[in-house]
Amino acid sequence: MTLEYIKSQRGKDLLIIENYLFEKDKDAKNDPNTSYWRCQTRSCKERVSVVSGELSRHNIIHTHPDHSEAINKKRKLKIFKEAAGKNPGKGMKRVYDETIRNEVDAATDRDEAIAQMPPFKQIGRTMYRALEDILPKEPKSRSEIKFEGVWLQTVNNQQFVAINDGMADKIIVLCTEKFGKRLAQAKKIFSDGTFKSVPKLFEQLYTFHVKEDKQMIPVAYCLLPNKSSSTYERLLTLLRNWIASLGFIFKPDEIMIDFEQAMIKAINKVFPTTRVRGCLFHYRQAIYRHVQECGLSAAYNEPRAVDDDGNEIINDVRKAIRRFLGLPFLPVNEIEDAHTEMMEHVDLNDARISSFCDYHLDTWMKDDAKFPKEIWNQYGNFCDRTNNLLFFLLLPDLLHQFPIWCFV
């Protein structure tokens, strides 16, 4: 009989015999062609010998349930790992989807096959680790990163590494010429950054998106060494120059960001006529975060009450915070008066509320506020008030601190 082996989690061989797993006990001292194996269930006394690739004992009797479930999982794991190793130039999510489709198409019972497939979140890390075995040598510093061969292109043979600039302060931009054209032609651009889904040696992944036919499309992935204003300025300049080399002008009318001062400063310097608009989601998120920091969460989230007519009774804290949340929807020239009127109804004797109001004034309201009203104002912006929809497009946490080759 042909023997089937499969790898353990530690990479050791496991022998499969009639839906039972055996692990190697030892090799014969005087015979290199003979090895001894014992059942993986420690309480089981069953053992077998393998001589010259053949099983020497067949009448095996176990005193416990077989390992069918574990074997099926390991077989599935092997399929996905092999698929990952055969497709280094493809994204692992794409390899995963194609493998699922192939396995389901070949199955007798499609529904059962689908049910047995592990989710990508569970198998993804294993696939990336399998890919590491065939990847180029992992660079120890940003200056060592060099793209060659398949790593320069997409699976469709399009140039993908648009920018590879600098040494220790290296900036890498992944973008095809087709998407570079889309970026240049878009009047409004959406941007966002993440510090989670970023490969080793880089601090941040910054992405640019455009909206076409009501769909948000990621067009450029930028790996940055830090989040300083000078780095952002350099990134925008590099992008502008690269797009110019394609024969297009990169000069957006508006860029939506997530209230990062360093990026605001960079945009104003590189694109002085471009409007910077803050994301409404991030404005609301900042407000809610400070509600928590000021100890107002309990009051804001207390159960809602209704009067005898069924109308909602809103407590003073919740009412005040809602008013702050509504300010972005007013015309810019009306915000100041609305804020003054709001403050007349706020209990500043409550230290928590007073602290929150001071924060809002310094951060959002004053002439020298951290973020001017023109940036967070949404009046007249009837759509695209947030770039939060970009979050689901960002790469998963599976990529956190993985080699750059896995990311590409």
TrEMBL record:
<feature type="domain" description="FLYWCH-type">
    <location>
        <begin position="5"/>
        <end position="64"/>
    </location>
</feature>
<keyword id="KW-0862">Zinc</keyword>
<keyword id="KW-0479">Metal-binding</keyword>
<feature type="domain" description="MULE transposase">
    <location>
        <begin position="191"/>
        <end position="283"/>
    </location>
</feature>
<keyword id="KW-0863">Zinc-finger</keyword>
<dbReference type="Pfam" id="PF04500">
    <property type="entry name" value="FLYWCH"/>
</dbReference>
<dbReference type="Pfam" id="PF10551">
    <property type="entry name" value="MULE"/>
</dbReference>
<dbReference type="InterPro" id="IPR018289">
    <property type="entry name" value="MULE_transposase_dom"/>
</dbReference>
<dbReference type="GO" id="GO:0008270">
    <property type="term" value="F:zinc ion binding"/>
</dbReference>
<protein>
    <recommendedName>
        <fullName>MULE transposase domain-containing protein</fullName>
    </recommendedName>
</protein>
<dbReference type="InterPro" id="IPR007588">
    <property type="entry name" value="Znf_FLYWCH"/>
</dbReference>
